[in-house]
Task: structure prediction
Amino acid sequence: MKPSTLRKITVAAVFILVAVSLATNAATGTLSAIGFESIALICPVGALEVMLGLHQFLLHPFILLLVVVAALLLVGKAFCAWLCPTPMLQALFRPGKKKGKKDAAKDAGEAKDASEPAGAALAVDSAKAAVALTADEKAVLSGCSHSCTSCGSLAPCGGKRDGFKLDTRFAVLGGALASAAIFGFPVFCLICPVGLTFATFIGLWHLFQFNETTWGLLLFPALLILELVVLRKWCHKFCPISALMSLVSTGNKFLKPQVNEEKCLRSRGIDCHACVDACPELLDPHMSDIPECSKCGKCKEVCPAGAITFPFFARKKAGAPALERDKAPSAAPAFNAEDLDEELAEA
Result:
């Protein structure tokens, strides 16, 4: 089963559990605060807001906050892909462009050609790799138009959000915590898309079960549409929960995407960047420092060579192999296309 299908099933299961809780009056809560009776696992941002709003240290929220931190160190930002309903709702409001039959056939043909080591194209690539070329020369030969600087040298292209970066999410996080301290209650919880989603779900449940009407049935969906449609990059630019999880996930060492360089098409001189283009977090799984990784498995799903896995213990990633001429003195002869043709003909 594809990871994308598993994610949808997981999110659907969360709503089913909430519905069962409402039907049986079990009061187990939602993702904003889930638990039983007096023990509830509160949203980490909400827990910080509560303590700042009351201007005192609370042992119960603090202990549960430590539990969340431990979970983040273990699984990273998996909550964003596997439990948070926001990405699914965004997909409903803004569905991606579906590929036509021609595009699908073209992709299938390219994947088939790329997976045949004995093919003519790979034979030429192998011959080119045998000739000591500089990175710039190999980039010219490969016709690479992507953001990488030396595709021929097997260097990863890199993603826009690789590594830990301070961005606008952290400003929103600071504002949420400051507003809680000033006004004395968790202000952000009133507009949190996760809370609004379950508040709308509970409101609809009460409407059909008890015929209860409330202004929330109009206000909550309106705020959700504003955040998910108007603020098109909520998760990347505004979500303070994502910011806090990214901060903690810098220490995550488990369940990280691992690329088998022997299978990866880039090791054969093919400028494949399907994993980078498909990643919703704009990451490159070849890189070791990717705290924004939500373990969604999209890179694994689209990799034409099946080179990406998510082992619990990831091996240390080696750097890109260096070319012979990259190590040679700077007085190396200039690139000459005619000389290359002769060398390839002899090979």
In short: The beta strands are 29-30, 33-36, 39-42, 258-259, 308-309. The chain is about 55% helix and 5% strand. The two ends are 44 Å apart (CA to CA). Residues 260 and 307 are 5 Å apart (CA to CA).
